[in-house]
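Page 37, continued from 36.
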């Protein structure tokens, strides 16, 4: 899509059989390079997408379909192209490479996961469920509406050193100091109410004090 004019300039057909739920960069900062490929997932499999292929864009040699029904809900990559995939039932699968079995399966957290994010080094994973992140109950009550968090995101910078986490719920934007979270200090966060409903948010690259947001108009 050409964002300046708001028009679709190219459409890709990935597969005749697979409905894509999400597409993510092949590594955490791949969108800042000339890398044309993406990683996609459906409800039951993960695969590489290559727009340079003439017809269907799915790379057959890099497609992993699970035998049991999984219901993959979200995915993300770290700087080394390792993949983390979340499931609707709350589990997380960690892949070292596309086309192979998951190296690690983390147990269910009990609720569907709607967003997942990893730090550049792959050591930290942030998952987002519909009704909770690291918020104190008294602040949730002050929001005076149903909580529905957007997928949480780390900030990104050239040093691959994440310092903040951001999410939103309705008109509220919430950010945490990552160093405090790693030390078990969860109360050091900021909540800001805006005039409009926020539908997407993330930090601007290399700018820890700048958050880009999309609104419902």
């Amino acid at each position: 899509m050409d964002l300046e004019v708001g028009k679709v300039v190219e459409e890709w057909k990935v597969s005749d059989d697979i409905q894509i739920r999400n597409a993510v960069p092949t590594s955490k900062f791949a969108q800042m390079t000339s890398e044309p490929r993406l990683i996609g997932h459906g409800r039951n499999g993960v695969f590489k997408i290559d727009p340079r292929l003439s017809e269907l864009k799915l790379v057959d040699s890099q497609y992993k379909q699970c035998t049991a029904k999984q219901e993959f809900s979200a995915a993300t990559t770290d700087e080394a192209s390792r993949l983390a995939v979340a499931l609707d039932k709350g589990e997380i699968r960690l892949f070292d490479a596309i086309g192979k079995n998951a190296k690690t399966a983390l147990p269910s957290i009990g609720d569907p996961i709607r967003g997942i994010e990893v730090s550049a080094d792959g050591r930290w994973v942030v998952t987002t469920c519909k009704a909770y992140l690291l918020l104190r109950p008294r602040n949730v009550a002050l929001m005076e509406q149903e909580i529905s968090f957007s997928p949480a995101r780390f900030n990104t910078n050239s040093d691959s050193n994440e310092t903040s986490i951001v999410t939103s719920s309705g008109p509220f934007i919430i950010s945490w100091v990552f160093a405090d979270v790693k030390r078990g200090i969860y109360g050091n966060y900021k909540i800001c109410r805006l005039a409009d409903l926020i539908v997407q948010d993330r930090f601007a690259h290399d700018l820890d004090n700048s958050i880009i947001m999309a609104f419902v108009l």
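The chain has a mean pLDDT of 79. Flag for discussion at group meeting. The longest helix spans residues 137-142.
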